């Protein structure tokens, strides 16, 4: 009896929300439904291909989600689109390849790890590259905040955005000077062999690696935000900077830690991107950064779970567009998603800032 | 006499600009090509200044209008659409004496068409974005600015139809000219690459018209409406200003000049391809506006000249100096370095330093200066307004 009553009120609430929705929402829902149906048709026709593409989408989505978290963390705290974040990701991939090469500033620390030295050395190399890149990108993030954003804390928002764009170009050119304009190859440390016995669906060790690195990072971040003192301080600062500082929270330190977290995730993401795709290039941060920003907006900027959901969605949209529309249209599709979301639902799918602020809208 | 004094400096500068080809020929500096390129960017910067400086809407995709203007000229003044043959007042002729392949319309008509087409596109892009907050609006314009060149890049096979010829782009665009002039003025009949004077005077006239329109706009009803919407949209709306049409006018007029500049660029360079319209160009133009002084016409012109001057003169000069040092020290890295490749490093530094030290630019607009120096966050954004409407 009670369950029936709940179901009835639920359907009523659904009808109510449909009745209250504007035309733009209805059109958006219809378009999304059509796209999903078309994809399902493809899935039924060629399930193996669809599943393989889905795996690639999820893996790319994990890489994008980690970058998107950096955008969303910073936006949640100081309402800045940290344009340099994508380029920080690029620097992360360059730090990763430098660690693997074993040579820095002309000094040989150890022999380059190229994948020929056995499994243990490979695992050690990947972990070492990840840790160094995470540390470096975290510090770069904090440094940029100190130098470029902190003096502008009270300036018009767009002045800070212009500074962020400037920092993005500076980082991009540091990458250009460091590694040159050509694509930088990564060694094949993680096997591209299929894990699954059947040949139809492709799930490679690389895909497993990305998931295996991403999930602990997400769990760790979630624990940090929800259960530590510093995470609580972050949520408080995101809600109200002045009130937080009156409660004795060190706002500047909290903002620095936010940039540190964003940088750490971007560093991990950069190394994974390089190992997964086998290459990195100095301007990869621009496109990947925009994809990640799209993901953050799609999920609802400032909302941490939104960034993760958005990241996976953008990854899947990208891989589906690769397969069914054409690789060269993928970026146009994702930028179109960005524009449509910003224009028709700037709050994103899950609503903005609710996660960091510790409540709904 | 005193009331004419304020015209003295502009008059001297215009006279210098008019005499530049003669000075250049006398000194043998061969600077006309550079001067024309700089003038194109002065026009672009003035166009962006309407959007960013006057109306306070940060546009990160301004290159889209530049590209649209160039492609309009590319489509309608070349052999690209070789299935049809149509000529209208064009300088293009074919060797056989028959009507040439493709659409060939006079540059002067296309110039207007390109401007109007860009302006309409500016309004189409602007319309859905106007209810967004400043930084979201910037990202949407960035998205459009990325989509349009990528569309041109992929547009060589739209269901089998070749609209843009892909990464190769459109080649051999017709020269502008006045075919009806007597033969004694043959360099004006059809502009050639050998004599750059007609090109120079054309772009100079275009720049002067742009400056005139900008100066007149600044203190017009519309210009003051832009200032009020920029400073406080709600108060402006309460005073009877329609923020939507006001902002749309800014987009349309900015795009108009972007389209003009693109059309001239297409005819001047003759070969256009999508890589020439990257995000970097948007930022370069923005950098000019920020460096010179948002909202100040003279500042923006100075910014454009300064940054292109760095591009064309300072960096090659510095490169030779660094090469000499590298040779002296014996460092191969220094003697082979190409500083011009890293110009965007310098532009990035310029953006950051200007925002940190002098956000109002070299020659500030006094009103913008007050807004940018305003430390009270309670009064909303001086650029782009406060909350979403």
Automatic annotation (TrEMBL), chain B:
InterPro entries: ABC_transp_permease (IPR001851), LivM-like (IPR043428). It is found in: Cell membrane. Residues 367-389 are annotated as: Disordered. GO terms for cellular component: plasma membrane. The chain crosses the membrane at residues 35-58, 65-85, 105-127, 198-215, 248-269, 281-305, 340-357. CDD domains: TM_PBP1_LivM_like (cd06581). It holds the Pfam family BPD_transp_2. It is a multi-pass membrane protein. One of its GO terms (molecular function) is branched-chain amino acid transmembrane transporter activity. It comes from the Bacteria. The keyword Ligase does not apply. Keywords: Cell membrane, Membrane, Transmembrane, Transmembrane helix. This is Branched-chain amino acid transport system permease protein LivM.
């Amino acid at each position: 009896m009670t369950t029936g009553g709940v179901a009835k009120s639920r359907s009523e609430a659904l009808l109510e929300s449909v009745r209250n929705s504007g035309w733009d929402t209805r059109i958006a829902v219809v378009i999304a439904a059509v796209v999903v149906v078309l994809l399902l048709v493809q899935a039924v026709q060629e399930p193996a291909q669809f599943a393989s593409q889905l795996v690639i989408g999820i893996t790319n989505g994990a890489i994008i989600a980690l970058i998107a978290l950096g955008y969303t963390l910073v936006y949640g705290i100081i309402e800045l689109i940290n344009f340099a974040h994508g380029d920080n990701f690029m620097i992360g991939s360059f730090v990763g390849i430098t660690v693997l090469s074993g040579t820095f500033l002309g000094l040989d620390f150890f022999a380059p790890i190229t994948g020929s030295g056995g499994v243990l050395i490979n695992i050690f190399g990947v972990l070492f590259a990840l840790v160094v890149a995470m540390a470096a990108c975290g510090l770069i993030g904090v440094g940029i905040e100190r130098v470029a954003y902190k003096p502008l804390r009270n300036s018009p928002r767009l002045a800070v955005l212009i500074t962020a764009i400037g920092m993005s170009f500076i980082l991009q050119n540091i990458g250009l000077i460091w590694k040159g304009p050509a694509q930088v190859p990564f060694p094949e440390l993680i096997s591209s062999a299929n894990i699954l016995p059947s040949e139809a669906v492709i799930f490679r060790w690389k895909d497993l690696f990305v998931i295996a690195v991403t999930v602990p990072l997400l769990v760790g971040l979630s624990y940090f935000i929800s259960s530590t003192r510093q995470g609580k301080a972050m949520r408080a600062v995101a809600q109200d900077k002045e009130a937080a500082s009156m409660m004795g929270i060190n706002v500047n330190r909290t903002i620095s830690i936010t940039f540190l977290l964003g940088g750490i995730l971007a560093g991990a993401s950069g190394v994974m991107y390089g190992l997964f795709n086998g290459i990195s290039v100095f301007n990869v941060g621009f496109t990947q950064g925009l994809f990640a920003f799209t993901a953050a907006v799609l999920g609802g900027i400032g909302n941490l779970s939104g960034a993760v959901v958005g990241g996976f969605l953008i990854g899947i949209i990208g891989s589906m567009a690769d397969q069914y529309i054409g690789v060269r249209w993928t970026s146009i599709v994702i930028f179109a998603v960005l524009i449509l979301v910003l224009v028709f639902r700037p709050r994103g799918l899950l609503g903005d800032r609710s996660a960091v602020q510790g409540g709904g809208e | 006499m005193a009331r004419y004094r304020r015209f003295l400096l502009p008059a001297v500068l215009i006279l210098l600009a008019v005499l530049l080809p003669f000075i250049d020929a006398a000194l043998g500096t061969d600077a006309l090509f550079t001067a024309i390129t700089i003038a194109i960017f002065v026009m672009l910067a003035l166009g962006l200044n309407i959007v960013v400086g006057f109306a306070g809407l940060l546009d990160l995709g301004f290159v889209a209008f530049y590209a649209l203007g160039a492609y309009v000229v590319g489509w309608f003044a070349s052999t690209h659409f070789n299935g049809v043959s149509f000529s209208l007042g064009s300088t293009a002729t074919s060797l056989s004496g028959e009507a040439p392949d493709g659409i060939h319309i006079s540059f002067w008509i296309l110039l207007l068409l390109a401007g109007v087409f860009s302006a309409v596109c500016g309004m189409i892009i602007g319309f859905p974005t106007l209810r967004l907050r400043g930084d979201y609006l910037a990202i949407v314009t960035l998205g459009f600015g990325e989509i349009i060149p990528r569309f041109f890049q992929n547009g060589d096979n739209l269901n089998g139809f070749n609209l843009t010829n892909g990464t190769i782009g459109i080649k051999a665009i017709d020269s502008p000219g006045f075919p009806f002039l007597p033969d004694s003025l043959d360099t004006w009949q059809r502009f050639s690459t050998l004599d750059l004077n007609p090109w120079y005077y054309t772009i100079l006239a275009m720049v002067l018209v742009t400056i005139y329109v900008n100066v007149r706009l600044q203190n017009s009803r519309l210009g003051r409406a832009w200032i009020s919407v920029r400073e406080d949209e709600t108060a402006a709306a309460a005073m009877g200003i329609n923020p939507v049409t006001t902002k749309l006018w800014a987009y349309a007029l900015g795009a108009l000049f972007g389209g003009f500049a693109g059309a001239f660029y297409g005819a001047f360079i003759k070969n256009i391809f999508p890589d020439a319209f990257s995000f970097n160009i948007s930022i370069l133009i923005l950098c000019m506006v920020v460096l010179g002084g948002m909202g100040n016409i003279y500042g923006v012109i100075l910014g454009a000249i300064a940054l292109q001057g760095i591009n064309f003169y300072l960096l090659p000069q510095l490169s030779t100096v660094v090469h000499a040092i590298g040779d002296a020290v014996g460092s191969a890295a220094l003697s082979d370095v190409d500083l011009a490749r890293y110009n965007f490093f310098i532009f990035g530094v310029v953006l950051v330093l200007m925002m940190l030290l002098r956000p109002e630019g070299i020659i500030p607009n006094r009103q913008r200066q007050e807004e940018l120096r305003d430390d009270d966050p309670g009064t909303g954004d001086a650029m782009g307004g406060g909350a979403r409407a």
